[in-house]
Request: fold
Amino acid sequence: MTSTHQATLERSRDRHDLSAARPRRAPVRERMSWAIYDFANTIFSMNVTTLYFSVWLVSDLGASNTMYATASAAASFLVILSIPVLGSISDDQRRRKPWVIGFTLLCCAATALIGILGQHQLPLIGSEVRHPHGAPGAWHPNLGTMFGVLAAFAIANYAYQAALPFYNAMLPELVPAEEQGHLSGVGTGLGYVGSIVGVLLVVPFFNGALPVIGALPARTMSALRHIVPYTDAGGRVSTFVPTAVLFLLFSLPLFTLCHDHGPAPRGTRAHWRRAFREVANTLRDASGHPGALRFIIASFLYQDAIGTIIGFMTLYAVKAVGFTAGTEITLFLVLTVPAIFGSYLYGELVDRFGAKRCLALTLVLWVLLLIGMVVVPSKTGFWIVGLLIGLNFGGVPTAERPVLLSLVPDAEAGRYFSLMLLSARAAAIVGPLIWGITVDTLEPRVGTGLAYRAAVISVIVMFVIALVVLRRVPDRRTQPAV
Reply:
């Protein structure tokens, strides 16, 4: 018997064993604790990767777009090096939860480290800093002076991304295939609630106020800064430690209530050498699952486009549209509200009309809305387009998980989610760098507004190509993978 045939039989036996061990529908406490993790991790993604870090780096400290893009690319490179192998090992042992816990703890620690290093190694300057300490004449925001903070951000971003394929692979263990769109939509919707809650709980450490309500009493702020360390300085540098604390706190339900179903017996060896081979085998075996590899390629493109626009959208609002630094927090808080309802709506649409159709719809809407962002440069236009982007934003994470699960066996979901993340992260090295180089090259020649709009056009092109590739992915609607 050939080794390839033997491996196929082993995987088939694993799928049978796993299907027998996995409940058709896990208890409510497990399903909800899984969904709440989306609430937790979007606190990090909203506060760190969307709102505060890029503007702190570029606007407050004077670093370049390319420097921020390089730090993001470093995180993606770490994902490329490690996650497919770890996903293969996770499939061998049929354990997802320990990886989610480990990477979450690493993300929280590195996020807190950004705030600590930022206050010890860098000038305290920028919007809402309570007692600014100006940069000395010899100080410049280059790779040498910024290395510690950039490294901490890269590790935090890496760990955040690294937890996701293991988290996604838990989905088929919790509900049957025909309910995955609903639970995925609930998780995504809770994620946007987490974005709002995270912003509201962290923004007082930035400016001592709440959106719409205004400044908080001095006694309240003094108590908050006393409870949470490394927040007394104010400004964006004081938002990272509270974000880390909140991410950890809201991850505890998954840590304590959610379980792996049908794990391999404790002591099962992790076959590291075979895991490395399985990375190549996953690409080879994808040809046996029609549409799987093509879908991975499509995700390469649209995830890169989404990651790029979200990573730089705050800078776009401040630099290109003219929002006053600090007011973009209220803007993105409001734009997140429709994402909650949109995610739930997409979850219902996925179960009714099929995940692939819904994924194609959300990509078409991304293209149209970004075109609107380019051609309507006013603040009013940005508000309108932003609200519609918020309504559409949950479509991709809600639909793509059921699409992939419809194309591959449940027992192999971990390595295919890892491969999808690998492809997206490989592209994410390119997308942000294209954005950064485009803006830094064009801005001195054509001005800030046109330079940033040219960068948005590059993102539109990614979405269009992703749509073309997605057209030939099979539409299997809610049929379980076998």
